Amino acid sequence: MRYWQALVGFVLAIAMLLIPLSAYAASSSSISRSAGKEELSKKDFSGQSLVGAEYTSVNLENANFSNADLRGGVFNGTVLQGANFHGADFSNGIAYLVDFKGADLSDAILTEAMLLRSTFDNVDVTGADFTDAVLDNIQLKKLCAKASGINSHTGVSTRESLGCK
């Protein structure tokens, strides 16, 4: 009996090594709601449900995302200079290599968002909630210098959510 179990285990191990398994991974090219390499500057997305939407290498300068539902959304290599995110929900979102220069993030919810290698020059973060968001230290210091207010939806202080001292 013991010999039989060892033989079956060995055969299964060999079979798993020899039979190729397909790998599945998420990529921007596989998401049907993605926008790529388009000119969308000044476009009005206010109040829209854009859950899981993905924007890669897009110019969204001065776009209006106020009060939009962007939960789980992705901005990758995107220009968002002067964009309006007032009251938007970008929780669990990803912003990688994004230029937020002059953007309005007031009263926005960015909880658990990944905001790596993105820049936040001259951004309004009054009342924004960054609880458990991941930011580069340099950008965190910039945001803490201007952080004030309490988010009207979550009741969390902007300074507290950023961990400002």
Question: What's this, in brief?
Answer:
The protein is an alpha/beta fold and 165 residues long.
What is the tally of beta strands?
6
Largest sheet: 4 strands, parallel
The outline comes out as: elongated
Portion in helices: 10-25%
**Would you tell me the overall average pLDDT?**
88
Low-confidence segments, ≥5 residues, pLDDT <50? 23-34
**Gyration radius from CA atoms, angstroms:** 21 Å
Q: What topology, given as strand order, has the largest sheet?
A: 1-2-3-4
Q: How many angstroms does the end-to-end distance come to? A: 66 Å
Can you walk through the features of this model?
The chain has 3 helices and 6 strands, in the order αββββββαα. The termini are far apart. Helices cover 19% and strands 10% of the residues. The strands form 2 sheets. A 4-stranded parallel sheet has the order 1-2-3-4, with no helix packed on it. Residues 23-34 have low confidence and may be disordered. The protein is α/β, with parallel strands linked by helices. The longest helix has 17 residues, at 2-18. The protein has helices at 2-18, 137-146, 158-162; strands spanning 34-36, 54-56, 74-76, 94-96, 114-115, 134-135.
